[in-house]
Design brief:
The protein has one helix at residues 33-39, and strands at residues 7-10, 17-20, 28-30, 44-50, 55-57, 61-67, 70-75, 81-86, 92-96, 110-112. It has a single domain (7-138), classed as Beta Complex (Metal Binding Protein, Guanine Nucleotide Exchange Factor, Chain A). The chain is built from 1 helix and 10 strands, in the order E-E-E-H-E-E-E-E-E-E-E. By secondary structure, it is mostly beta strands. The structure holds zinc ion (2 copies). Residues 11-13, 15-16, 60, 75, 77-78, 80 line the site of one zinc ion (ZN).
Amino acid sequence: MDGASTLTGRCLCSSVRYRCGALLYPATWCHCESCRRASGTAPVGWFTVALASVEFHGDSLRVHRSSPGVERRFCSVCGTPLTYWSEQRPTEIDFTLGSLDEPDRVTPVDHIWMADAPDWDRPTDGLPQHAGLRPTTLR
Ligand SMILES: [Zn+2]
Ligand SMILES: [Zn+2]
């Protein structure tokens, strides 16, 4: 794996560590209800990499199927949300921005699922805001 594009991260308690390849798309802020409930706050920053580029270390990774065809993985010791995977995009996986060892290496470029956002979750950073998913023309 190319060291310059390799990203690493971990959960709060370090029971789970990961290593993955470069981003497939620019990162985003997700404001959907599912992310809000899974994290306990909003929004949640995500970046997307190739599933085949991912290595996990540690035995505390657990999965919760939060919607049909959707798997959210988290640390069973400390509860940190780590990944989102959907059968709609089976060769990709999303990681939480906050779990990166070097979070400044990835910067979100927009906001998605604003239709779900509570009144107190209104970004003022000037980035584009999409009611649902990012339009595919921007991917
Ligand atoms: Zn942990
Ligand atoms: Zn979401």
